[in-house]
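JOB MANIFEST
job_type = single_chain_structure
chain_count = 1
residues = 275
[input]
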Amino acid sequence: MLKIMFFVLVSFALMTPGAFAQDTNRFSLTTDKTAYVEGDIITVSGKINHVIIGLEVSLQIFSEQNQIGISQVRVSQDGEFTDKITAGGPLWKNEGKITIKATYGETSVEKIIDFFKVTSGEYTSLYEVKIPNAGTFDVLYTMKGGDITSIELNQKNLSLVINLNTNSDGVLDLRLFRDNIDSISNTGQDIDFIVLVYEKDNSIIPIQTEYKKIDKDEIYRDISIPIKNDDVKVEIIGTHIIPEFGTIAMIVLAVAIVSIIAVSAKSRLSIMPKI
């Protein structure tokens, strides 16, 4: 008799799992990006599988264990909901992981994003770029959402090639010294760099992307480039790049020096001061 009752209970549990366990897949929660910089708008959206008329979704925002935001969101008849949250404010004090928790009835789901404070014009790292056969120059940068693995000089394309290792969406701030790379018109006016981004799944064909101009003067130009998770490379193309260095330039310089010596030897008498 006990065996029969046990079999009936097990069969009933398998046929009606909702009676014994919470259905944690009743709704989903997504954000439009995986990381945000202070001031960005976070678009939160989701889908309810079983709508309860009049019941709203509760959104809670946590930084570590501290609640830094809360809102109530209406659910449409087809089960969809969306809300917009500003990444920033008095309670958004620290960079790091932010947890967005959505609760509907007795069910909760979470989404974790990265949050970065604005550091435009503040550079925490320096990379020493090698010039083929001619030394090095420095690039100042701050990377949010990953790391720079290398920066290479492409003299043929008049560009800097920056290789990345990303773990989330983020931003790459750079200080580019004009003596090293610049983009100017024939009349000497600043023009935009061409910024190409290479994705992991499409590392051959780049995507041209817009960048933010932070600051500039006679010595440098500061730019900020948005980075997506799985971006692997950024190429910054200008109109000139350290023309006084490099293998070809060194050959030209050597020929010029030899020519000057030869001309000076032939005309030494003509340029000697008269006594």
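[summary]
Confidence is low (pLDDT under 50) at residues 2-10, 12-24, 245-275.
Residues 23-116 form a domain with the Immunoglobulin-like fold (CATH 2.60.40.1930).
exit_status = 0
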